[in-house]
Specification:
- The protein is an alpha/beta fold and 346 residues long.
- It folds into two domains: 3-149 and 311-342, Medium-chain alcohol dehydrogenases, catalytic domain (Quinone Oxidoreductase, Chain A, domain 1); 157-288, NAD(P)-binding Rossmann-like Domain (Rossmann fold).
- Helix content is 28%, strand content 27%.
- Helix 5 (150-160) packs across helix 6 and helix 5 crosses helix 11 (296-306).
- It starts with a strand and ends with a strand.
- It binds nicotinamide-adenine-dinucleotide and zinc ion (ZN).
Length: 346
């Protein structure tokens, strides 16, 4: 029986364990991928910390991680379009294929989604097995560290392209890795002003490198003042909420133009309250975003990168997998963008 190294949620307590586990079995419609790079997501941090969401969601033991790039090692007996040696990434949401939305081609709205590295073994490992329907063939000219971030980049692309941003003024709340990527996407897509907010000076500095018109610390600058400084009279046309903070969402609502459009990616606390008058009387549209469209978002992100979109400044640290503790500590500190772990080289 072949064994591999993996980062495992072994005990129902904070932490992660670098362990030897069995290489997962390859079903007839599955693809076995040798992982080259994987990147750490906020979800992985929740699992590491063993917060209430993780406690109710994660069965143990579980190999975690869902953002990765690798090379195909073998394929199941019924897989015909993928071959050993192909560089691939993978969609982290496994859908049922049978519900109304799946059958209609709206797989991102599947009623029975399960998560790689959440509900089934993940990619913080030397090998990962995913269904062939989740494999995305990568352009091998795109750097591996960028490909390893395709899952969160897809969140950013899905959110930022939900509404037309050409010539529009865009407000992004939250300069985490996804908010930072969204700056570059909104710029690439032709926005006029791209304003981003955060409370973290390290991330606000990164935001400038990614092309933000203004990167504002909301503790010292008001968005009303920002609008004045930029000569904006009626408010932001498009809002991308990428912090999960109720305060940030309320800040955003207070500076949207009438008829403005908001895409909500950040996961809000259940009890978050907003001023509904602003939504109703100002005719706002609010759209919730979950994951990536399969596979239109994947097509777009590949094409955007091929067309010159540069998200490299978001990737601030890389470590060998054995030094994962350093990566998780940095993520927790907030003084990082995206952190990539190295598993193997080609
Ligand atoms: P992150 O936690 O790294 O970044 C959030 C940022 O928001 C942080 O830099 C934080 O300092 C900032 N922030 C906190 N309070 C703020 C405030 N009042 N105003 C402005 N900024 C504030 O998260 P990420 O990995 O970049 O993800 C962004 C959000 O999207 C998170 O809420 C995450 O849970 C969520 N998410 C949703 C999906 C989905 O499918 N809907 C997928 C991935 C992530
Ligand atoms: Zn479904």
């Amino acid at each position: 029986m072949q064994m591999m190294k993996a980062l495992v949620k072994k005990e129902r307590a904070p932490g992660l364990w670098l362990d030897q586990v069995k290489v997962p079995t390859v079903g007839e419609f599955d693809v076995l991928i040798r992982v080259l790079r994987s990147s750490i997501c906020g979800t992985d941090l929740h699992i590491y910390d063993w917060d209430p969401w993780a406690q109710k969601t994660i069965p143990t033991p579980m190999v975690i991680g869902h953002e990765f790039v690798g090379v195909i090692e073998t394929v199941g007996s019924h897989v015909h379009d993928f071959y050993p040696g192909m560089i691939v990434t993978g969609e982290g949401h496994v859908v049922c294929g049978r519900c109304r939305n799946c059958l209609a081609g709206r797989r991102h709205l599947c009623n029975h989604t399960s998560g790689i590295g959440v509900n089934r073994p993940g990619a913080f490992a030397e090998f990962v097995v995913i269904p062939e329907t989740n494999v995305w063939i990568a352009d091998p000219n795109i750097p591996l560290e960028v490909l390893s971030c395709f899952d969160p980049l897809g969140n950013a692309v899905h959110t930022a392209l939900s509404f037309d941003v050409l010539g529009e003024d865009v407000l992004i709340t939250g300069a985490g890795p996804i908010g930072l990527m969204a700056i570059a996407i909104a710029r690439h897509a032709g926005a006029r002003h791209v304003v981003i907010t955060d409370l973290n000076p390290y991330r606000l500095e990164l935001a400038k490198q990614l092309g933000a018109t203004l990167a504002c610390d909301v503790r010292s600058v008001s968005l009303q003042q920002v609008m004045k400084d930029l000569g904006m009279k009626e408010g932001f046309d498009v809002g991308l909420e990428m912090s999960g903070s109720g305060q940030a969402l309320n800040d955003m609502l207070s500076v949207m133009c009438h008829g403005g459009k908001i895409a909500l990616l950040g996961i809000q606390a259940k009890q978050t309250a907003i001023d509904w008058d602003l939504v109703v009387f100002n005719g706002l549209t609010i759209k919730g975003i979950y994951g990536r469209e399969m596979y239109e978002t994947w097509y777009k992100m590949t094409a955007l990168i091929q067309g010159g979109l540069n998200i490299k400044p978001v990737i601030t640290h890389e470590f060998p997998f054995a030094e994962f503790e350093k990566g998780f500590a940095l993520m927790k500190s907030g003084n990082s963008g995206k952190i990539v772990l190295h598993w193997a080289d080609l």
